[in-house]
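Appendix B. One record, verbatim.
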Amino acid sequence: MILRGVSVRILTDNIPRLYDFYTEKLGFKVVWGDRNTPYVDFADADGNKCLALFINSGMEAYQGYVPLVGKQRSDQAVYCTFVKNLDAFYEELKSKGVEFMGEPQYISGWDMRVVYFRDPDGNLFEICEEN
């Protein structure tokens, strides 16, 4: 069996805060929902669904779901995306208040230029330059 499609869904306790971050700072377009709904779908610049937000408490609808608690959080997933001009994109987001972990850099072992930042919930994002 081969799975079809990929959907990245970020679980959060604060939809309005992440909604504002993704729309105002990253420029994502809303496909469904708004800052007051428990679920929001976003699209990329080409109109393709690329990310969703879901309120943490909504997971309780699945019988047997048990959230991880009491563990120190570590990065277990990274949202990765590509842009044509990393420096221009970096400067644009920086001007909107996005706080980066550093400046764009070339990593020879990966043969690519990247930069990282976190959303207000601490989720890790990687922006790569198309080569």
